[in-house]
Amino acid sequence: MYSFPPLAAAIGVLYTAVNTLTTAFTPLLGAASAAAAIVALTMIVRTILLPLGLAQVRGELARLALAPKLRELQQKYRNNPERLRRELTALYQREGTSPLAGCLPALAQAPVFMVLYGLFLTAEVGGQANALLTSTLAGVPLGARSLDVAGVDLLVFAALGAALIGVAALTRWLTPAPPADTPGAGVIRLLPFGTVLVAAIVPLAAGLYVLTTTAWTVTERSLLRRVLARKHGP
Of 140, 156, 125, 161, whose CA–CA distance to 34 is shortest? Predict the structure, then answer.
């Protein structure tokens, strides 16, 4: 998949960016400069995508505000699906939102994240070995997976996993719980912990990306929720 020309070209651009950042960080961070470059690049991309994050939080707040009205309509017209559809459409139109509010921004971010992820998995970039995967963090190659290492090297992955568990717990605590009658509500509350499983099977570089972007997401959403709630509050 990552050999597809447009995708390979995008990976090449990001590869150059990471190498540039690595060179800049090397005098200060030495062997950890490549890992720092991954974190810095992820933060730069998330900063660029901040307007999409804002739209996503607005959509989330809109859905939460409409939840009581939605449940009322679903209860009232539960035996009349066609009438329910019309009433829901009218409600969304009156409120100036839609069922997809907050979803499209997340979809728009997917191509960017796919390229970033591909950068950490591609063995060759531009016909040359991906030097990013041979760089190390605490002596562990960024291209290594948890199943590839043993002994003290596992401590790096254990620390990464512990950090992801902490971020996932914070995400669950700060994210408004879905209504109890929402299908799969229990599963939804556990989804943030899926990042721990992802980090267990992907290269260390990809795990660093996952940790950085999830930590950014929980911080961004928490701040934006407060700002928007204060702006539209009584």
Answer: 140
Polymer length of the chain: 234
Q: CA-to-CA distance for 178 and 175, rounded, in angstroms?
A: 9
Query: What is the C-alpha separation between 188 and 102, in angstroms, rounded?
Result: 16
Locate all alpha helices (DSSP H) within 124-153, ordered by sequence: none
State the Rg of the chain over Cα.
Answer: 21
Query: What pLDDT score was predicted for residue 21?
Result: 95
Q: How far apart are the C-alpha atoms of 154 and 138, rounded to whole Å? A: 11
Can you read off the two tokens belonging to residue 101? 């509010």
**Structure tokens given for 31:** 């062997």
Q: For residues 142 and 119, is the Cβ–Cβ distance under 8 A?
A: no
37 — pLDDT class (breaks 50, 70, 90): very high
Whether the predicted model's global pTM rises above the 0.85 cut: no
Of 100, 180, 69, the C-alpha closest to 77 is: 69
Distance (Å, rounded) from C-alpha 58 to C-alpha 52? 10
Which helix (H) or strand (E) covers residue 231, if one does?
Answer: helix 204-232
3-state secondary structure 67-96: HHHHHHHHHHCCCCHHHHHHHHHHHHHHHC
pLDDT tens, residue by residue, 170-222: 988 877 665 555 555 566 677 888 888 888 888 898 899 889 989 998 999 88
Query: What phi and psi values does residue 178 have, to the nearest 5 degrees?
Result: -70, 155
